[in-house]
Amino acid sequence: MSSIQQILVVDDDADIREVIRIQLENKGYLVLEAANGNDAVNTVRENPDIDLIILDIMMPGMSGIEACAQIRTFHSAPVLFLTAKSKETDKNDAYENGGDDYLVKPFSQAELFMKIHSLLRRYVVYKGKSESAGNLSELHVQDIVIDTVNHWVYRENQKIELTDTEYLVLMYLVKNKGNAKDAQAIYEGVWNEKFLPSSTNTIMVHILKLRKKLELDFNNPLIIRTVWGKGYQIDEG
Hints:
globular; Rossmann fold; alpha/beta
């Protein structure tokens, strides 16, 4: 496994790929490229050590959203959508299909690298390359079992597939059991970025996705509860 972090840049515009590639290589990253969704999926399959995927949405053939959904079936590297699509519905669609963050074109180099550094830092923790992930190897939340070594989640020996960001949001709430955490606390605790008004929607989408995967009754959530006026909470016990 290479010690140099690998980033896949996916965009049908060769000029955009070149600009991003040069910026990334100047920062010491190993850069792979793909011109469409199909090539992106195949590149990730052939290069399992990829640490981050920068993905356009509007491409001929398979869209970036479709490519992300396919990649999520076999790889957990964070996906940063880099796109001209700026509507909230576009962002929701991206997050619902496994995206981790979203940056609208045109963008500044500083903003791009801020998001890249944040995503890579979280992925290092997710893959267990940092001791900050915690010392307990197994945690229990009602009938859910969390394997903190492999970052897997189970119910009755059936694995529940979570993205790395979903796992980190869950672990943040687990580590704060019995205490309601609002969107700002969760965002700053997991993303390590300044909270913005739009960040509330990001948290809502990730909580929604977690509930769909973890709750036996989605309409009556018992694992991740809403504490009105305070935020989200996992109870003690």
